[in-house]
UniProtKB/TrEMBL annotation:
It comes from the Bacteria. It is found in: Cell membrane. This is Thiol reductant ABC exporter subunit CydC. It comes from Amycolatopsis melonis. Its main location: membrane. Keywords: ATP-binding, Membrane, Nucleotide-binding, Transmembrane, Transmembrane helix. The keyword Repeat does not apply. CDD domains: ABCC_MRP_Like. Residues 35-275 form the ABC transmembrane type-1 domain. The chain crosses the membrane at residues 35-58, 64-82, 138-159, 165-187, 250-271, 277-296. It is a multi-pass membrane protein. Residues 333-548 form the ABC transporter domain. Coiled coil: none annotated. InterPro entries: AAA+_ATPase (IPR003593), ABC1_TM_dom (IPR011527), ABC1_TM_sf (IPR036640), ABC_CydC/D (IPR014223), ABC_transporter-like_ATP-bd (IPR003439), ABC_transporter-like_CS (IPR017871), P-loop_NTPase (IPR027417), Type_1_exporter (IPR039421).
Amino acid sequence: MTSTNDFAGTLQGRVGAASGLWAISPRDILRLLRAAFLGAAAELAALGLMATAAWLLLRAAERPPLAALTLAIVAVRTLALLRGGLRYAERLAGHEVVLRWLGALRTRVYQALAPGSRFSGGDLVTRVVSGVDALQDAVLRCLLPAGVAFLVGLVSVGVTATASLAAAGVLAAGLVTAGVLLPWLVVRVTGEAARAEAPQRAELAERAVELVTGHRELVAAGALEEHRGRATAVVGRLARSERLASAKTSLAGAAGVLVQLGTTVGVALLAGASVPWTAALTLAALTCFEVVLPLIGAARRVPEIRASAARVRAVLNRPVPEKGSRIARDGHFRLERASRKYPGRAPALQDVDLDLPPGKRVGILGPSGAGKTTLLRLLLGLETPTSGRVTLDGHPVTEYADLPSVISGAEADAHVFHTTVRENLLLAKPDATDGELREACETAGFDLDLDRDTGPDGAALSGGQRQRLVLARAVLAAPPVLVLDEPVEGLDPAHGDAVLERVLAKAKGTVLLVTHRPEHVAGFDEVLTLEDGRALPASAAGRRPGRP
Ligand SMILES: Nc1ncnc2c1ncn2[C@@H]1O[C@H](COP(=O)(O)OP(=O)(O)OP(=O)(O)O)[C@@H](O)[C@H]1O
């Protein structure tokens, strides 16, 4: 076993170097081969045990001198012990490789998901947890058993060939039918069924989400039963399709058992050796199928594994925006004819210029959907412009490694961690004293206990409390460029105005405030008014101040 540090080092190296889904180090490939050989040895020990026991019984019936049986008696005991020991060693070796590989794969999936993920929460959980977990079956339930079955089959056919080529031929044909042909058929049948069921599964997921999230509305409209009936109908269709596919794959399982019986009888008839030796070969052939038949069951998982692999690969292969290593100097942001367009929609932002040197205070006004948040997301490096430039100290913002430490604040979708108020605040300033935390809370008008549990994403707080907690965190972080996206929108106006006044009084650097209320940005160095993604000329903006 390697030490934890060794393991972390190997993992890091592999994470950095590997690009494909199945990326695995040469050392782990050797470990996998070792697991396959150990597995084959364990199965051959079981097979040898059966064959030797059969030989022993029949030879003993001939009443030979005891000395003629001694070797077989010792072999039976040795093989029985070996079988258990080798199986344990194979499990250990196989699982060690798979757990290493899965650990590295999970790290890579997390790394690929981290920057500005386009995947939603539920989708993300599916990809990371079930998707990656399903892949372990590819190795443990498919690849490794197939390797073991191949080795065991090869040895069995070889040993049978020493007695009779015809019997060896029958055994080989039986093993190929049960171990290759039938699993291939099962993969085809389950694959076709999965493809046919995919739209129904999607529909069921959609209907289930609608039933749960829209439950109250459906009850109020008296439409619950109708919607439940539609979901139940989809469940019925899916169940029928699954039953049909299951019947077909069960037939393949039964066919496997028939092939096993036929092959065993064939070997017994064609072996042409002494009775004990024929019995040994026959029982060996019968036992050999115990390794091969599970491949038919494992084949049912192949389409699901393929789908999981495709989902995980989509995460790993998506282009990750290059994060540069540049370190910010002055903190001078600039938008130069910046535009952002989403496919199939009018531009969210079009040809907008903005100069934001250190210390400047800029207000952004505009009706809903005007592009205010889009402008902030460009500056925060969360979106890239479809044309134009967004720069910090003359270089594209995406080239900076430390952008969030230069520009941050109270963003509309800021996350509240499921912990205490104190821990949420300490994220912004880890060495802050309780006094400093309370002062920041006071500035933001947030008066809850520091030990208060916040719930998942702040669900245990009211909307206003959540908003003020995010604001207190922004005050504590005190970044060079403070971004405030409608920071007091949900608060009652008088209280909100007072909070905003205190927050602005504390801010020492650049401030970018998005608001619907022009009085919030009175006295700012510049006010940019957006409408339909475009900046209005100053005069026009003056005529329609803060039209909501
Ligand atoms: N991810 C997206 N995909 C497609 N369209 C988007 C996306 N994000 C924003 N938009 C569209 O871009 C336009 C500008 O959105 P934005 O969020 O910047 O407006 P806003 O001025 O901040 O509005 P509000 O005051 O309501 O928050 C809107 O029409 C919106 O529907």
